[in-house]
UniProtKB/TrEMBL annotation:
Pfam families attached to this UniProt entry: Pyr_redox_2, Pyr_redox_dim
Family: Belongs to the class-I pyridine nucleotide-disulfide oxidoreductase family.
Entry protein name: Glutathione amide reductase
Enzyme nomenclature, EC number: 1.8.1.16
Keyword ATP-binding: no
Domain of life: Bacteria
Requisite cofactors: FAD
Domain Pyridine nucleotide-disulphide oxidoreductase dimerisation: 345-451
Gene this chain is encoded by: garB
Keywords: FAD, Flavoprotein, Oxidoreductase
Domain FAD/NAD(P)-binding: 7-324
Amino acid sequence: MRTNRFDLIAIGTGPSASTVAEKTADDGKRVAVIESREFGGTCALRGCNPKKVYTNAANLIDRTRGGQDKFIKSDGVRVNWAKLLEFKREFTEPVLEHSEASFQKRGITTFHGEASFVDPTTIRVGEHQLSSDRIFVGVGGHPRPLDVPGGELAIHSDEFLELESIPQRFVFIGGGYISMEFACVAARCGSQVVVLERGDRVLSPFDRDLVKQLVRYGKSRGLDVRTDAEVTEISQGDDGSFVVQYRQPDRNHATLQTDLVVHGAGRAPNLDGLNLKAGNVAFGDDGIKVDSLMRSVSNPSVFSAGDCADTGKPRLTPVANEEARVVVKNLFAEHPQVRPDYGQVPKVAFTVPPIASVGMSQHQAEASHKVVVHHQDTSSSGSVRKTLQPCGGYKVLIDKDSDRILGAHLIGPAADETINLFALAMKFGLTATDIKSTLFAFPTHASDVRQML
Ligand SMILES: Cc1cc2nc3c(=O)[nH]c(=O)nc-3n(C[C@H](O)[C@H](O)[C@H](O)COP(=O)(O)OP(=O)(O)OC[C@H]3O[C@@H](n4cnc5c(N)ncnc54)[C@H](O)[C@@H]3O)c2cc1C
Ligand SMILES: NC(=O)c1ccc[n+]([C@@H]2O[C@H](COP(=O)([O-])OP(=O)(O)OC[C@H]3O[C@@H](n4cnc5c(N)ncnc54)[C@H](O)[C@@H]3O)[C@@H](O)[C@H]2O)c1
């Protein structure tokens, strides 16, 4: 087998690998990119972007229904699911069509297939063998296998985003980002939806009080969230429907009959087929072990970033992008020294309405600082009611000594946008007084921030 030599081999085409490959090629280096599925990665094809089409639709339906009792005249708002799927494809199909060509236009050599290490500087893909002193691994993740009998009967988020029609009944396993976002979509589109979460709360990265508000609002709109409910078995009957068994502390076992079961019980790094041992690349359950320069701790030729790198950071696109920026700086540096500047990573679950968070939780802040807590349910305030989606609230944590923001937690219309103001303020150390002294356009959701401080 002939071996092709490159300055860089990038494995994957998600946000992390495409940034690393493109910037390196733009610098005049010989780059190879390998992708085992469609070119474009999770975020653009099966994650953030297509998902947002569905959650925007669900929020629109929710608000339109909110107006029906008031000034919108119609005999019921219904979704045309097939058209929604078509609309989603308007955003994914261009990626499918153009992604590989755009690598090639930059002079990057593209390969299709599953990459695996042959030795610390050699990669095999299909019939090809490629070698380089620099290999970037940005292979992302996949749904963690559901370790219960019948676990394989549950569909994954990829399949949810490609459903041709929407069934009457759904059960979602897990109460994290994926389940709660998709469950809100399904419920607003008319299905009966149950979320089963084994922990004592859903959406654990978000503020407990605001999550309670979200669950209450969802309940009044067809979304049934059950906590302390661990799924133990899934089976399928002769009529094609499914039975989900789960355990709750107060009962032995409960069962639910449903038309579709969706796995939202967590994801794991895509490391299985990479033969990392042959590449001398150390890894664990949480991904490839990297140092603070994003380099493998065991093989100096290998860098990694994004969902498959074990950094302890949330597995989100902005995190993957920041780590990729660092890799680009360090790959060919004589003395690599750039480290990620994560700042405070803002998090948003695109539920109905969205919920957002940046910085410390109330518990973390109170354990380490003297804290002023500004917490309010704003569902009945004018600015929230005007949106026809009466669910809003905030919890802002301010350090009593320095007047700086320690954490901000928001729910409601535009929470997904407003959280970025807090991220900016926190990164640059603005005080609550600085923010309050800034004029914001009115009436906007940003202008509500002054009342939160
Ligand atoms: C349903 C869903 C919704 C999401 N929503 C959001 C959101 O709203 N906001 C947000 O910030 N994040 C979101 N995320 C997370 C976000 O998509 C990821 O954090 C991001 O895509 C990580 O980028 P990456 O480059 O690490 O990997 P990916 O984007 O996962 O790309 C990895 C690529 O590597 C390929 N690959 C895997 N193994 C091999 C191999 N052996 N050889 C060759 N190629 C291989 C894969 O096919 C894939 O194309 C969402 C994720 C999901 C699943
Ligand atoms: N808006 C966003 O930024 C966004 C959206 C989707 C996904 N993501 C990324 O994808 C990752 C994976 O998302 P996810 O929602 O699959 O995982 P997650 O880790 O966020 O949540 C999984 C949940 O499933 C529960 N669970 C596990 N096994 C269970 C069982 N047998 N029965 C009942 N509950 C069970 C866990 O307790 C947990 O609460 C996220 O952590 C995030 O990094 C981000």
